[in-house]
Design goal:
Blueprint: H1 7-44, H2 48-81, H3 84-151, H4 154-284, E1 293-300, E2 303-311, E3 318-323, H5 334-341, E4 345-348, E5 363-365, E6 368-371, E7 377-381, E8 387-391, E9 405-409, E10 412-415, E11 418-419, H6 431-434, E12 437-444, E13 449-459, H7 461-470, E14 475-479, E15 487-489, E16 492-495, E17 503-508, H8 511-521
Antiparallel strand pairs: 1-2, 2-13, 3-17, 4-15, 4-17, 5-6, 5-9, 7-8, 7-9, 10-11, 10-14, 12-13, 12-14, 15-16
Helix pairs in contact: 1-3, 1-4, 3-4
Length: about 550
Amino acid sequence: MRLSRNPAARTLTLPTALFVLSLLCFAAPSQAASRHHKSASAAHSRSPKHHAVSQAQAAHLARLAAQEKAAWRAHLAKLRELPRAKRLAMKRHDRHFKKVEDQAHAQRLAQQQAHQQRLAQKQARQSRLARRTSHAAHGAQVASARAHHAKTPPRALALAAQSSHARAAHTSAAQAQHNARLAAIQAKRDAHLAALQAAHHAHLAAAQAAHDAHLTAAQRLHNARLLSHQARLAKAQAAGLARLRAHQQALAQRALAHQTRLARAQSAHAARTAAQRARAVALHGDNSGGRSIHFWQTVAAGVPVKVITVDLNDQDVKVSAVMARRGNGTSEPFRQMIERANPNVAVTGTFFSLDNLRPIGDIVIDGSLVHFGGMGTALCITPANHADMVTTDWGRHHDWTGYDFVCACGPRLLRRGRVVLDPAAERFRDRHMLAPNSRIAVGITRGNKIVFAMTHEPIYLGRLAKVMRVLGTSEAMNLDAGTSTGFYYNGATLARPGRQLTNMIVVYGQKRRYERALDQLVPAAYHHAQADSGARRQVSVRLAGR
């Protein structure tokens, strides 16, 4: 500060100069101390740049923690797929590795804490020393300023003020150097901490890589062993299945062979039993037909035939017919008709149309006409058991009064012992019927016996007439046969038809048996009330549309 050369001005400015000098003496140390305190506190506290770095480090540590957590979860998932022994070994390895890592981390943290404590102690000592130095300097300056103010002339005061400014500048420079040193120390500390973190992360990465490599190798070994075991197991299973299939096939073949042998044995036994029963029934009967019904087998005119002879001289014998249960225009199985009628002898009756299932000839049961056919030759039996054979006029009603049973079929084979076969005259023109077929015929002997003959061998009607003449009949006619061939005797079915029938001729060896079955011979559709108990009258029933 320059002083004025004018005395008046000098006298005016001297107090002002002294006041300014005192202010400078008091203000300079206080400002230096405050700047030293602020720099120390700023050095002690973190700068904004250091705060951003700390935040970045915290975020980086959080990411590392998340990565480690994800890696640990993946590691646990892989561990669950390993065998128990491998998992236990890897758990022991992980515990040891974690223990060593925790110890190393604890040592590094302890070193960092010790370093930070030493640095904080050093900063505290430096800050205390700076405060003490600043306070002492400030006191000395105040004291010297007061002494100089009392003794020193104005020029000396100016020089003192200049020196105080120089000291303040020197103090500011020293404080700046100190802050620079503190910043360098902080930077060195941050670099050392970053290096420690990088080394720690590198160590973690290396350990994780080694662990992953070991886990991968273990997983590959486990997969190879598992594949080998699965291959051996599949091979063993395939071999076992092949053996099981072979065993099952052998068992099935044995069972099939056994079943076949058993079925053959059973069928042979059943056939033998049926043959024995049929032979016994044929030879001896079942004692239900009496002595008037006989069965025998022979060869007549070179044709093997089965013959049933019925002696009508026995008044206890009854010959009749049975119709299908549901009436005219219907059919019924042969076995059901036998079970319903319960006869001693049952033979297929007259022909019937396959279109409408209506018989072609007249049928009289118990003296009543139950069906009108209007063609063929009829087997007729009176109430006194006298048999006769009558050839009807085609399409005309015949008077069957005086006959208890009538069944018209044809064509006629014999009349008075002579062959009178003429199918065309009786309107038989079906080629299948005229061609060779299995046959059934009925004839009457001169001794009033009925002869039923059946052959399975396909023959013509002319040869059938010769067979009947050889069997001793004087009157004979053809019956329905072929697929309809049915021949039953005393519980033995000697021929079973291949289709259902509409009618058949039945013979009873006892009149009581006939009377019990009479209601079953004619279905309800054919029944008509009779006028009185002793009289019989002929009833013509037309059941068109049934």
